[in-house]
């Protein structure tokens, strides 16, 4: 059996088309995250958009989001995540799914 | 006068069928989709059971953009090194009236929405519905959108806005969103030549294969799937949200591990990832279903959690199409009767109760949670493959042991109590039988 | 009068499997979008009509409807193969414009086109061109002249004052296109689009060849040993003789420079 190298995460995300809007449709309240020890979002977000920072916060980028809804469901801190859809016509566009 | 008779939110399978049904009965229908085209936001495993379309679009199979007709359906149970595969083949499924088909959602949903346009509905894309409009008595009377001058009024709104349904939530029809009721689906579309797919999966022409996988998800409760398209295959996993974060395993790593399983690797080898995608599934069936009717409002498809995700079944598109169609019909009937109150719209839920849409869900009520339970997920794959392995192993000169003894020994090895086995078997029998 | 906007139907991203974009993954570039927005802004303060044009197959009408929904008044599609020569496309676009006051274009298209259509349009209309604008300042009075900044090669900028008829091409970063209202989006899908069948051949252009200087004669290196010959070629300590300092008036200096370049073989 051959084990071929799995593609890098960036290459994986690059296979998806994102029509990026200038407004962030999801925002994360860094203050709430500082007290969070469980960090569900970091493991679960399929786009890996939640990055813990060295000073105990969370860095979030909205651009490559699949708009799945996982993060607001797994996060159990009220008010940490503000979640909306991007403006109509923007965001993820699937091709062969 | 209202801007439209019926506004349908979301041009997925539920929304488009609602729009077709309503437009056919002569209503002014506006179908609103937030993506740049219908299907652009939609992802699934890969098989549609379109027979329900016979009613709305006779001869749908002549124009629907399908990839392959499923003629082989396999269920695989994976342990760390072994695999039990139950495989059924019917070449009859490859001919009219057909059974299931693989298709890309950006193709299929777009085609279905065009049928709604042909039936007379107005399709408006790139427009996100942001909320419900209510009259002074609190009845739903339209929607607001994210466009300038974006309010639109109607007699009935049908919310087909998918698994996250903010409209159903805003209308107060969902109690609370509990992560336990959802699974995350992630998949890779892998390109392989048609020739290789035909050979590996034992099919030809436009015949296809559907493989559901139990086990192989790195200890995270869930399941896997492989579907064949014409010149790609879809490989993915479905993962229980609450367990995913508890197990500290990333979704893409779980797919990678599944792809490395000795029973899966030869099927996917050499396939290059041409697209990665993710989407939620309302997994809990009846246990999570919201109220589906309010004054001036109906909920259909995934928005109403009408998705059947019970282990070896992963069906949602057919439930969405059926519930959408019934919603469209009930909305028209209510408008004709000049009464769009919840009471009058209730004919919708009556229809669901009488047809497969809710009958299947009632029958399989306990199955989703059973299939995703820790015991089934973590102990049964080893138990089942262990039993079969011992049955087929030839240990000459030792004589073959009796099946009863193997079962009992393997059960103990897997740490399953006899009482648990009996209970699960009964739940399963009642559910599936 | 008419303000014309030329937009091109292109793939946003993803595989380009044929010359005809897949409608679902196609649209018009940010640059073309900016061109439309500037035209709409000017028309808002005047009685001008905004005419959008595109050249392409029937699928390209999607971008025209999009433009109509955002406020363009009229739309024309030139029915033509997307792979046609730029000058043919330009000539047909001009034919459908009838004496425009201004023509707006995006300065590049997503599909790495040659970007030559705007110049061909200016040539055919015989009006000025200001291409590659990176900033603009519209006047209060829509008919007054206005300032703009143009991108030059090498990161330099040129200030322009634009008045009268002109072909203008803008970068996508200059302005963001407005969002269409819901009502306009609904009505645009039913608005009429005029279709004109393309005619005519290529425009005459001077024959251009890539620049190739004449070969320069280099004498063989002198020296008895190989080492000396290599030294002769690679030695940098002694000058090989083009350096010369002269003092002259600009025009005389220019003549001198040309003469020297010719002598050294850089010019014919
Ligand atoms: C991984 C995975 C595998 C699956 N496998 C299968 C399978 O093999 N077979 C099967 O039958 N089913 C499968 N399903 C389930 C199936 O995909 C869904 O049940 C089905 O898509 C539901 O259809 P729908 O029309 O209700 O919702 P959706 O298909 O989700 O459509 C909702 C539409 O509404 C739009 N929308 C949402 N909000 C708004 C808004 N505010 N304004 C405007 N538009 C909005 C969305 O863009 C979308 O187009 C799978 C699901 C997943 C996630
Ligand atoms: S988003 Fe929620 S889960 Fe993630 S770190 Fe912040 S509080 Fe924790
Ligand atoms: S919606 Fe999904 S993809 Fe987007 S940030 Fe949340 S978890 Fe990640």
TrEMBL record, chain A:
<feature type="domain" description="4Fe-4S ferredoxin-type">
    <location>
        <begin position="56"/>
        <end position="86"/>
    </location>
</feature>
<keyword id="KW-0408">Iron</keyword>
<dbReference type="InterPro" id="IPR012206">
    <property type="entry name" value="Fd_FixX"/>
</dbReference>
<dbReference type="Pfam" id="PF13187">
    <property type="entry name" value="Fer4_9"/>
</dbReference>
<keyword id="KW-0249">Electron transport</keyword>
<dbReference type="GO" id="GO:0051536">
    <property type="term" value="F:iron-sulfur cluster binding"/>
</dbReference>
<feature type="domain" description="4Fe-4S ferredoxin-type">
    <location>
        <begin position="24"/>
        <end position="55"/>
    </location>
</feature>
<dbReference type="InterPro" id="IPR017896">
    <property type="entry name" value="4Fe4S_Fe-S-bd"/>
</dbReference>
<protein>
    <submittedName>
        <fullName>Unannotated protein</fullName>
    </submittedName>
</protein>
<keyword id="KW-0813">Transport</keyword>
<keyword id="KW-0479">Metal-binding</keyword>
<dbReference type="GO" id="GO:0005506">
    <property type="term" value="F:iron ion binding"/>
</dbReference>
<keyword id="KW-0411">Iron-sulfur</keyword>
């Amino acid at each position: 059996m051959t084990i071929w190298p799995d593609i890098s995460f960036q290459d994986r995300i690059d296979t998806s088309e994102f029509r990026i809007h200038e407004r962030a449709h999801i925002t994360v309240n860094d203050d709430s995250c500082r007290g969070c020890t469980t960090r569900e979002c970091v493991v679960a977000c399929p786009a890996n958009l939640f990055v813990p920072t060295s000073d105990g916060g969370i860095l979030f980028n909205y651009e490559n989001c699949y708009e799945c809804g996982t993060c607001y469901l797994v996060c159990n801190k009220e008010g940490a995540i503000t979640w909306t859809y991007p403006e109509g016509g923007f965001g993820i566009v699937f091709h062969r799914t | 006068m209202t801007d439209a008779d019926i506004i349908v939110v979301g041009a997925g399978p539920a929304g488009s069928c609602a729009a077709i049904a309503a437009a056919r009965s002569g209503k002014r229908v506006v179908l609103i989709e937030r993506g740049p085209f219908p299907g652009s936001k939609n992802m699934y495993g890969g098989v549609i059971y379109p027979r329900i379309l016979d009613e709305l679009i006779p001869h749908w199979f002549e124009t629907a953009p399908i990839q392959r007709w499923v003629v082989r359906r396999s269920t695989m149970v994976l342990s760390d090194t072994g695999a039990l595969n139950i495989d059924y083949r019917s070449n009859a499924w490859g001919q009219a009236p057909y059974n299931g088909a693989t298709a890309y959602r950006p193709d299929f949903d777009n085609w279905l929405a065009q049928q709604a346009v042909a039936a007379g509905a107005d399709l408006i894309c790139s427009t996100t519905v942001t909320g419900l409009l209510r009259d002074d008595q609190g009845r739903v009377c339209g929607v607001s959108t994210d466009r300038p001058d974006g309010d639109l009024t109607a007699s009935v709104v049908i919310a087909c806005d998918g698994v996250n349904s903010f409209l159903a939530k805003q209308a107060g029809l969902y109690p609370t969103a509990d992560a336990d009721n959802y699974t995350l689906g992630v998949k890779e579309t892998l390109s392989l030549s048609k020739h290789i797919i035909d050979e590996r999966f034992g099919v030809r022409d436009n015949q296809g294969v559907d493989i559901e996988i139990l086990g192989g998800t790195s200890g995270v409760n869930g399941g896997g799937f492989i579907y064949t398209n014409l010149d790609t295959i879809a490989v993915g996993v479905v993962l229980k949200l609450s367990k995913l974060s508890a197990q500290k395993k990333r979704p893409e790593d779980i797919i990678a591990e599944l792809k490395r399983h000795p029973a899966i690797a030869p099927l996917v080898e050499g396939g290059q990832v041409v697209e990665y995608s993710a989407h939620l599934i309302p997994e809990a069936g009846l246990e999570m279903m919201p109220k589906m009717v309010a004054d001036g409002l109906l909920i259909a498809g995934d928005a109403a959690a009408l998705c059947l995700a019970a282990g070896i079944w992963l069906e949602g598109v057919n439930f969405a199409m059926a519930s959408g169609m019934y919603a469209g019909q009930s909305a028209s009937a209510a408008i004709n009767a000049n009464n769009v109150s919840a009471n009058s719209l209730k004919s919708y839920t009556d229809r669901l109760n009488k047809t497969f849409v809710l009958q299947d869900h009632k029958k399989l009520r306990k199955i989703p949670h059973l299939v995703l339970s820790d015991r089934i997920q973590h102990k049964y794959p080893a138990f089942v493959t262990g039993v079969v392995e011992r049955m087929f192993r030839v240990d000459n000169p030792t004589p073959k042991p009796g099946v009863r003894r193997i079962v009992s020994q393997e059960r103990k090895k897997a740490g399953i109590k006899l009482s648990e086995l009996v209970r699960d078997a009964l739940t399963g029998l009642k559910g599936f039988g | 009068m008419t303000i014309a906007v030329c937009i091109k139907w292109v793939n946003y991203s993803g595989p380009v499997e044929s010359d005809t974009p897949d409608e679902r993954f196609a649209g018009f570039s940010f640059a073309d979008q900016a061109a439309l927005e500037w035209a709409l802004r000017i028309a808002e303060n005047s009685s001008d009509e905004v005419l959008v044009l595109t050249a392409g197959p029937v699928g390209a009408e999607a971008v025209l409807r999009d433009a109509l929904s955002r406020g363009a008044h009229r739309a024309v599609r030139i029915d033509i193969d997307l792979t046609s020569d730029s000058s043919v496309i330009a000539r047909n676009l001009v034919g459908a414009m009838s004496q425009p006051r201004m023509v707006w274009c995006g300065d590049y298209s997503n599909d790495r086109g040659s970007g030559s259509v705007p110049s061909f349009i200016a040539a055919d209309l015989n009006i000025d061109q200001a291409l590659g604008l990176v900033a603009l300042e519209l006047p209060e009075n829509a008919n007054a002249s206005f300032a703009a900044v143009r991108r030059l090669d090498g990161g330099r900028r040129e200030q322009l004052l634009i008045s009268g008829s002109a072909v203008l091409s803008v970068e996508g970063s200059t302005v963001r296109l407005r969002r269409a209202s819901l009502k306009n989006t609904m009505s645009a899908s039913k608005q009429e689009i005029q279709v004109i069948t393309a005619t005519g051949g290529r425009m005459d252009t001077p024959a251009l060849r890539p620049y190739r200087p004449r070969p320069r004669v280099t004498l063989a290196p002198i020296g008895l040993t190989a080492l000396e010959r290599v030294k002769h070629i690679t030695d940098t300590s002694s000058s090989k003789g083009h350096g010369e300092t002269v003092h002259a008036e600009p025009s005389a200096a220019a003549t001198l420079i040309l003469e020297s370049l010719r002598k050294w073989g850089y010019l014919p």
